Amino acid sequence: MLLIKGGTIVTAERSTRSDVLCDDEGRIAAIGPDLDCPTGCEIVDASGLLVMPGGIDPHTHMEMPFMGTTASDDFFTGTAAGLAGGTTSIIDFVIPAEGQPLFEAWQDWCVKAEKSASDYGFHVAVTHWNDRVHTDMGRLVHEGGVNSFKHFMAYKNALMIDDAIFLHSMQRAGELGALCTVHAENGDAVSFLQAELLASGETGPEAHPRSRPAQVEGEAAQRAIALASLHDTPLYIVHVSTREATEAIAAARLKGLKIYGEVLPQHLVFDERVYDTTDWLSSARHVMSPPFRPKSHQQALWGGLVSGQLQTTATDHCCFCRTQKERGRGDFTKIPNGVPGIEERMSVLWHHGVVSGRLSPEQFVAITSTNTARIFNIYPRKGCIAPGADADLVLWDPTATRTISNKALHHNVDYTLYEGMTLTGVAKRTISQSLMVWDDGTLRAERGKGRYVRRAPFGRI
Ligand code: URP
Ligand code: ZN
Ligand code: ZN
Ligand code: ZN
C-alpha cells in the first residue's frame, strides 16, 4: 500500500488538498484529508506537489514497421520513457501488413506489447476492405477489447484508403459501437506534389512541408467529417495541425456532430522554420506528417484546446534514429516520417499551456488524461482520481524547472525535438498500479508489468 500525503489533487473538475491511499491491487482505495496510514503502508510526501491522473497518450507507434524500417522505441523503452514523463497509459496502433487479416495483426501486436512497462491498448488500422475485415472488426470489438479503428487518408500506395473503404468501415464501426479515428491528409494531393517537387530537383527535407500544405489537411478533414455525417458516425481526427482542420471540427461540433480533435505538443511549439536550415539531419529529424506549419496555425490549435473544440493531446511518438532518417538522403519522400516526444509531452504542455496562462491546471488534466479516457471509454478506470480507479498518478512539481537534454531521456532514439529547452513543470514521481515507478530521477520501469486495457464498445453497459 502507498499513502500519498499532503498533496493537492487536481482532476479535470477541481483542485483539493487531500491524501490518496493506493491499495495492493493497483487501485485507489480512499481519498480524503489526513487519511490514517494502515500498518505496513509506505508514505509518500507530496507536500508542494500536485497529484494528477497519470497521462494517457492515445497516439504512439512503438516498434512500428513503416517506410521500410521499424520505429526504434519498442514497447518497453517507449512506455518506460512515458513513465519517466508522467504518462502511465498509451494507446498504440495495430497496422496490418498488406492484406493481413486485422485480427491476426492485432494478435501480433499483443505479443510485441507484452514487454510494456505501462498499461496499453490498441486502435486497429483498417487498410483494405473485404468480408474478412467486416468479420474481424466484430471479433476485435467483442473478443479483443478494441473500440477504435484507424483510417489513413494519406500514405498513398501504402496505408491509404479511399472514401469507399472509409465509408464501409464507418458503417461497420457504427454497428459495433466503435469509434473511427483518422489521419486527415489528402494522399493523392501529397503524392502529386511530391512528384512535382522531385521532378524540379527539390529532393531535400525542406520540400516535405511543401508537399503537404495546410489545404491538404483541411480538405481531408472536411471530407472525413462530411463522410462521418452521412450516418452521424462519431469521428476522432488525430494530429490536427492546421487552422482549417480546427475550424472544420468546431463548425461540425456546432452542428451537433460528434467530432473530436487531437493536438500534438510539437505542433503547438515549433513552426515551419525547423526546416529552414542547411543541416540536413536536423531538418530530416523534423520530418513527420502533418509537417510543422506556419506559426499562424498555432493560435487556432491553442484556441481549440482552450475552448474545448479540440479535446486531447498525444505525441504520435514514432522514433527513427539517424541511420534510419538517412534512408531519405537524396529523396525526401523516403525519410521515415515520425518524431519522438512521449517523455516530454506533459512538461511541454505544462510550460507552454499552464505557465503561459492559457490553460488552468484542471484543463491540463483534461487534455492530457481525462478527456482521452472518456473519448476512448476507459473512464473512470483511467483519467480519474476516485476510489476504485487505477492508481496511476503523477506527482507533479508545478514550479520545478529542467532543461531538456537527450542524454537524460529514456527513449531509444538519438535526439529530442526539445534539446536545450528549459521547461517549468516536472513529473517528480510517477505511480503505476500503486507502484512508484519514477522516483525523482530514478526509473524503476519493469518489463512486462504493463497490462492490456480492454476497452468496451460505446453504448453498451
Ligand atoms: O509522421 C508521422 N506522423 N508518423 C507516424 C505515422 C502517422 O502518420 O501517424
Ligand atoms: Zn454488418
Ligand atoms: Zn498520422
Ligand atoms: Zn501516428
TrEMBL record:
<keyword id="KW-0479">Metal-binding</keyword>
<dbReference type="InterPro" id="IPR050378">
    <property type="entry name" value="Metallo-dep_Hydrolases_sf"/>
</dbReference>
<protein>
    <submittedName>
        <fullName>Dihydropyrimidinase</fullName>
        <ecNumber>3.5.2.2</ecNumber>
    </submittedName>
</protein>
<dbReference type="InterPro" id="IPR006680">
    <property type="entry name" value="Amidohydro-rel"/>
</dbReference>
<dbReference type="GO" id="GO:0004157">
    <property type="term" value="F:dihydropyrimidinase activity"/>
</dbReference>
<dbReference type="InterPro" id="IPR011059">
    <property type="entry name" value="Metal-dep_hydrolase_composite"/>
</dbReference>
<comment type="similarity">
    <text>Belongs to the metallo-dependent hydrolases superfamily. Hydantoinase/dihydropyrimidinase family.</text>
</comment>
<dbReference type="Pfam" id="PF01979">
    <property type="entry name" value="Amidohydro_1"/>
</dbReference>
<dbReference type="InterPro" id="IPR032466">
    <property type="entry name" value="Metal_Hydrolase"/>
</dbReference>
<dbReference type="InterPro" id="IPR011778">
    <property type="entry name" value="Hydantoinase/dihydroPyrase"/>
</dbReference>
<keyword id="KW-0378">Hydrolase</keyword>
<feature type="domain" description="Amidohydrolase-related">
    <location>
        <begin position="50"/>
        <end position="420"/>
    </location>
</feature>
